[in-house]
Amino acid sequence: MSRRYLIVNADDFGRSAGINRGIATTHEQGIVTSASLMVRWPFAAEAAGYARDHPALSVGLHVDLGEWVPQAEDGWRTVYEVRAEDLEAEVCRQLGRFRELVGHEPTHLDSHQHVHRSEPVASIVRVLGEELGVPVRSVSPEVRYCGDFYGQDRRGEPRQDAIGVKALLSLIASLPAGTTEMCCHPGDPAGLESSYLYERSREIESLCDPRVRVALAAGGVELRSFNDL
Description:
Elements: E1 4-13, H1 17-28, E2 34-37, H2 44-53, E3 58-63, E4 66-70, E5 76-81, H3 87-102, E6 109-111, H4 121-132, E7 144-146, H5 165-173, E8 178-184, H6 199-207, H7 210-218, E9 221-224
Helix pairs in contact: 1-6, 5-7
């Protein structure tokens, strides 16, 4: 029987102290094996320090070019946007900052709100991944991406059931052969300005629930990190 491997990657590392705490908790007590660092935020240095002290947590670059939330009417509202005349230079600047903070190359590449899925950022990040020899989310064929563990729909409406233990167990049971990256967003919402707040606490509960490890073992699913690729 083909083996199944699961990488559980926590996004938004470094964005706030509460998110850092959530990722630390779910790494030490739950199933998080990897994280993606946002280098522009005040708590990025704290996150990098944790990563240096916990080398089992693989850390990638979460390219950060902005955040947008759906409005009641059609369209999106800009929460913030990185103004960069040269997007390639900005991505490389963030990579340079990652190296300064963490002390090594990222183990993987992805982006905030998946901006790297569209051009012109798509080509920039894909080429960078090839140069570094690391996987790029939703691009590299060796790792299947799963974004189903998320507590809102495309309109920003709550989907609390999607991040409950039952949903997580179902997701594990349905994993295909090969390596899957499951994205998550654990964190303490205190002091965080985001449209995704209290869902983060619910994610911590689910990711640390002991039934999840039992299900992984029973299903023959092996936890891995991007370090293992």
